[in-house]
Amino acid sequence: MNRTRSLFTLHSWLGLFTGIFLFLLGLSGSVLVFRHELDQVANREVLTVKLPTQVVANPLTRCYQTILSRYPNLDGIAWLNPDAGPTEAYDFRLYLNDTQLLTYDLGLISFNPYTGTIVREGKSIDFSPSIIEWLFQFHFSFQLGMPGAALTALFGLTMLGSLLTGLVIYRKMIWRVLTLRSRINRKNWRTISSDLHRQVGVWSLLLNAVIFFTGFWMNLFAFEPKTWQAELTQTRLNTPMALTADGLYQQARRLMPDLEPSYVYLPTQPERKFRVSGPLKGQWALWGAGNAVILDQQTGKLVQIRRLSELPVAKRLESAFFPLHVGNYGGLPVKIVYVLIGLTPGILAITGFLLWWRRARKPTRNWPEQRIVVRPT
Question: Residue 364 pLDDT > 60, yes or no?
């Protein structure tokens, strides 16, 4: 009983200290599951373009050159929607650097690819490009730059700790919950909060563990001293690609014809390379990040063709972390599940607080009652 009580105390304090942050992470994550769909709906007028009457040459190169002229010190550029339809604007991620630790330096710029006109532009710390873009940066950094990214990773660990302690505490109830033999007692708010906490915790346990672990893993860069140092160092002037972006893109497509591009990295610094990545035709989107064609942007020389099937097991698993985190690998049903799971940290935080408040009000005689929570009723 002492061990169970100690775990319950740890479980409670983990939830109390991080509850509001986990609530914000879960809620923003739920919205971002439909990030692209919501962006298209909210900004339909600016992101819908008219088809030209004649073929336009080198639209990607023109966008790239415009970005370089507007931002002379970029860490890099990413074309986010190479799978865009013929009437959709091109979206580009800007990797900026203002030499400040407390601002995470991302930006977004979108073009009409046929006219070269900028249809929206702004930093992700502002609402100017899109509120969805602001929410995206908030989700992994709380809009607090590198310290915020590290804090988000730590909250991922605390959530995992809360899940593990909850797993031990409610271990005798897990099978009853999963087999629908455990009901929510609606006698009063105490029984409702206790049973709801247990039910939600059990049903969301596995997916929450996956989501928070992958979130922690993807933010590990925030604990590297070289990353912090780079944030404080002014980026060098852009080194433009010697070859056209359109030419490199077409070359990459020829080298891996079964690749379905979902991300294109356009370098602005000489040590970076041109890269096209995405799933192969017929391949599950969960493994899409494992395939890529990498080219030298100055010479056109092939640097690497990377196929998921040729990667070590650890790298294959790591390539699935981002899809596992955002839920973009199984169509609408999986996305709906992820939206619902994103709400569970908030529910667990609220019901957990109610359970703690109940004990805090009656410290001398609460533990015997609390046994109802930690063993089958």
Answer: no
